[in-house]
Each structure stands twice: as C-alpha cells, then as structure tokens.
From TrEMBL:
Superkingdom classification of source: Bacteria
Sorted UniProt keywords: NAD, Nucleotide-binding, Oxidoreductase
Keyword Cell inner membrane belongs to the record: no
PANTHER family membership: LEUCINE DEHYDROGENASE (PTHR42722), VALINE DEHYDROGENASE (PTHR42722:SF1)
Keyword Endoplasmic reticulum assigned: no
Protein family membership: Belongs to the Glu/Leu/Phe/Val dehydrogenases family.
Pfam families in the record: ELFV_dehydrog (PF00208), ELFV_dehydrog_N (PF02812)
GO annotation, biological process: amino acid metabolic process
Name assigned to this protein: Leucine dehydrogenase
Organism: Geobacillus subterraneus
Length: 380
C-alpha cells in the first residue's frame, strides 16, 4: 500500500509522535466484554504511575487517546505538586457509563492493569465509582480508592472536594482579602461525586449558588438541600453557567471549559474547581489574567483524591489524608505569590514549581519496576 501524506500529516497521525512525551501507551481490547480502553503512562521517574480511570463515550479513538495523554501528563505534575512519590498515568475506557458497564468489563480492564506488573495504579475518575473497581480488584492489586469494606480508603472524591474547598478559601484570601466562604456567590458546573460535595459544603458555609448539571436529579438534590437550610440555589441551563455574574466559577465536570468563547463570557473574579485540564490551552491562563480573573491551577486544587489513594498504599488513614490535603491551601498561596512576583500566569508558576521539584527529586529517572522498590507493604 502506498498512501501519500504530507510530512505534517504523517507526523500528526503517527502514534509515536503523539506519545513522544510519554513512556508507554497501552491499547486494551476485549471483544467479549466490549472493553476498549487506553492506559497512558507519562512518567515513572519518581515512582509507579498513578491515576484514575475515566469512562466516557468518546466519539473517536483519537479523542480518547488525546484525553489519556493529556490527563496522564497532568498527573505527573499533580503528584509533584502534592508531594507524593508517584508518577503520572491515567486510563480511559471508551463507553457510556450509564449503559456500558458490567462486572466482566472491569475485570477485563483489571487484567490489563495487572499485565503492567506494578507500573500503573488506578481507581475512579469521571464516570467510574469505587464499586466498579471491586471487580477489577479481583484481577489485580494495583487498584486504589477501594471501598472501605474491602480494606481501602473509600471514595476519593471526599478529599478531592475538601481540597477544592481549601483552594477556594486560599483564592478568596488572595482575591477578596478573607478566606471565608460565606456571603459570596459561586457558579458550580457539575454536581457529580466532587461537585455535589463542594456545593453542599458551600451552602452549609452560607454561600449562594448557581448550579448546572445534565443530571436533573443531582440538581434537584442540591436545590432541595438549599431550601432545607434556607440558602439560595439557582439552577442554570448548560452553557448559561459561563455568563453568570458570581464571585467564583467552580468547574467540576469536564476539561477545556476555559477557552476563547467562555473567557469572553465569564463574569467572575476567580476560577477554582476540580475538573482536570480546565484550560483548553495554556494561553488561556494569560487571557484570564488579562481579564483580571484569578485562576487556581486545577492540578494543585484537585489533588485531594490523589493524596488519599496514594496514601492508601500505606494503609488507609483518614486523619493523615486530611492533614495532607490541607496543604493544598498553602501550596496555592505559594503559587499565587510566585506568579505575582515573577509576572507569570498561575499555571506557569505551578508548572515551574513542579519542574523544579522534579529536578531535585528524580534519581536516575529510569523505568520504575515495583520489584526494585517494594515500598508498599500493604499490597505486595
Ligand atoms: N473524583 C475525584 O476524586 C477527582 C475528580 N477530578 C475531576 O473532577 C471532575 C469531576 O469528577 P467526578 O465528580 O468524579 O465525576 P462524576 O462523573 O461523578 O461527575 C461529573 C458530573 O458532571 C456532569 N456533567 C457532565 N457534562 C456536563 C455538562 N456539559 N454540563 C454540566 N454538567 C455536566 C455529569 O452529569 C456528572 O454529574 C472531572 O473532571 C474529574 O477528572 C479530579 C481529581 C479527582
Ligand atoms: O482521585 C483518584 O481516585 C485518583 C487521582 C486522579 O486520577 C486524579 O486526581 O485525577
């Protein structure tokens, strides 16, 4: 076969070119269960790769690959920022979480994780729950965020939501001169595992909310809670959330929400949320800064889940996790101060902070194999 492609076209289509920043990408196909998954390992320089597994009905394999590559690279930075000895990895399962899940599918996925021999640990992300991974756990020990009934640390969205709240407090401190949550209006996008917990906590603290989610039941639940405690919760349809006049936009659904179109619409003073890869492109951080909107780097703010699942490998301990998650507040203040003093965007300051840490910490930067450093007594 002789297909003529321009140099640029063939480079962009070349899988090896696309994964040039990554160590390893694994394509997983199990026709019997319908499993189509991609595991991307960005770096094992500081330890085995760790990252959740997302389930989403990607329109194309290319879209799924791009998500896995970007998310796994983000995990390397998140591990560095949160100061845990893991590297960056992430998995995506192509499928609709409402229709395509089965115990067998997650067992098949677990077998692929097992085949990596300890180079990759995974657990929940958007579209997956700890219960899904109970099935994968039958095939591999490299599962984190395991339900408490199975000896794990449970739902990692609990510390993630706590970390987002610390992130909002640190940002309020810098933007409004007080870390208090009350008396402010927040526009929360996504009321799933993380977003709902953040929304409820903000309400309990005396905040007013605008909320949106495709899942009407989730919206109704938060509205009902607001009524119960006498707080204002206004549901908003879809993209209207970007046009709301509020103090803080709290994206807790999906990535790419900060882009040319939404920045033109945003009427908030700050953006702080759990969604991974909020910036469609790094240049959008500059655009936010020019518009006077403070951006809390996503991977600093949403590290609570990572902190818990990394910690779980030493044996579950909620107090330890909470105290480590609190550090998100201080780390964010360090990043804001660096960005201010160096005239950088907050994401530039965060990346620089992590890259300096990587330089200091990496030893020989060779491939990790768990046999070399059997640190996790719990599962090995
Ligand atoms: N679960 C965790 O501990 C962590 C989650 N994250 C990130 O936080 C985000 C949320 O994660 P989870 O709460 O775990 O996911 P989830 O799947 O439980 O919730 C996502 C919610 O967003 C809603 N949603 C989807 N599309 C929407 C749209 N167009 N408009 C409004 N709402 C929409 C869904 O209906 C769902 O309720 C994701 O980006 C995830 O990668 C990051 C770190 C840890
Ligand atoms: O939260 C988890 O369960 C794992 C960490 C992760 O995948 C993430 O922070 O995006």
């Amino acid at each position: 076969m002789n297909i003529m492609l321009s140099a640029n076209e063939s480079q962009t289509l070349d899988l090896f070119f696309q994964m040039r920043e990554h160590e390893q990408v694994v394509f997983c196909l199990d026709e019997a269960t319908g499993l189509r998954a991609i595991i991307a390992i960005h770096s094992t320089a500081l330890g085995p790769a760790l990252g959740g597994c997302r389930m989403y009905p990607y329109a194309t394999t290319e879209e799924a690959l791009a998500d896995a590559l970007r998310l796994s690279k983000g995990m390397t930075y998140k591990c560095l920022a949160a100061d845990v000895d893991f590297g960056g990895g992430k998995a995506v399962i192509i499928g609709d979480p409402r229709k395509d899940k089965s115990p067998e599918l997650f067992r098949a996925f677990g077998q692929f994780v097992a085949s990596l021999g300890g180079r990759f640990y995974t657990g929940t992300d958007m579209g997956t729950t700890p219960d899904d991974f109970v099935h994968a756990l039958k095939e591999t020990n490299c599962i984190v965020g395991v339900p408490e009934a199975y000896g794990g640390s449970g739902d990692s969205s609990v510390p993630t939501a706590a970390g987002v709240v610390y992130g909002i407090q640190a940002t309020n401190d810098v933007v409004f001169g007080s870390k208090h949550l009350h008396g402010k209006t927040y526009a929360v996008q996504g009321l799933g595992k993380v977003g709902k917990k953040v929304a409820l906590r903000l309400l309990e603290e005396g905040a007013d909310l605008y909320v949106c989610d495709l899942n009407e039941a989730a919206v109704e639940e938060v509205v009902a809670y607001g009524k119960q405690i006498g707080a204002s919760v206004k549901p908003v349809n879809g993209t209207d959330i970007y046009r709301i006049e509020a103090d803080v936009f709290v994206p807790c659904a999906f990535g790419g929400v900060i882009n040319d179109e939404t920045i033109a619409e945003l009427r908030v003073k700050a953006v702080v949320g759990s969604a991974n890869n909020q910036l469609a492109d790094k240049r959008h951080a500059r655009m936010l800064k020019e518009k006077g909107i403070v951006y809390a780097p996503d991977y600093i703010v949403n590290a609570g889940g990572l902190i818990q699942v990394a910690d779980e490998l030493y044996g579950a301990n909620k107090e330890r996790v909470l105290s480590k998650t609190k550090a998100i507040y201080d780390t964010l203040l360090v990043i804001y101060a660096r960005a201010e003093s160096e005239g950088m965007t907050t994401i530039e300051a965060a990346d620089q902070f992590c890259e300096e840490r990587l330089e200091k910490r990496k030893r020989r930067n060779h491939f990790f194999t768990h046999q070399k450093r059997p640190k996790w007594v719990v599962r090995h």
